[in-house]
Amino acid sequence: MELAAKKKITIEDYQKDKTTFYRITLKDMHLVSRNPLLATLFNDVGNGQTVTTEEIKNSRGKKVSQKVNRCYIDWRKNSYNEVVNQGLLVEKSIHKRNTNQTIICSLLFLSFGGALIFFFKFSELRIVMLVVETILLLFGITALVHSNNMISFYSQKGAEITNQIRGFKHMLEDIGNFEMRDVGDLVLWKDIMPYAVTFDLAKEVLKKLKIEFTADEWQRSDFYIHEPIYNFNSKGFYESFSSSLESSCSIGDASGGFGAGSGGGAF
């Protein structure tokens, strides 16, 4: 959505068999030269200028899906390494948290297996084992929650930036509860709009801006309120794009498929 807000791509939705798909059109040709994933999507899956989530979904099982899979895995690794190199994450904490979760889940699985054996082999102990297994399950869930809450994978810098982003989103969600003029003029709000699009709050922000600022102020600014991206359903696009990627790569090469829940971040 960031690329769409910066007018480097355009995104349009269309209907086919009662399903909403999205057509992504390339406006800045330099993008594909710098990003192998986008190059593969536009040039190999699409026609070089446009690609649709329908085409990505239908590439499942084709040779190109393996290439998309590899490019996406590389993109995720590079994105992760970039965040680590910026000092926003603590890899030791991530490893510790993952290890704790693995140990807890393994113990729960083993205890459940043992409970099943006792349940069928020793009928007189079924009630006891049911109580014990319930206690162990509650303990395991509590331990998982405690581990997640106590071990943060953010560094101090990462936590500060994360809180700033959450606070910024909360501010946009509170549109209508404060004077937008107190935040800034239309020039500033024009710069804020791409983030409102990303958070799927553009419609609400734009509606309030139209009320607070006069027609003369709008005329003097270069803020074009009828940009299609401002009325766009970013959540729907993320879900469609991620679902299409997951479908395309679910039977990829030896590296296997991937969870494409964050696939929309490529745009």
Automatic annotation (TrEMBL):
This is Predicted membrane protein YciQ-like C-terminal domain-containing protein. Residues 1-209 form the Predicted membrane protein YciQ-like C-terminal domain. Keywords: Membrane, Transmembrane, Transmembrane helix. It comes from the Bacteria. The chain crosses the membrane at residues 102-120, 126-145. Pfam families: DUF2207_C.
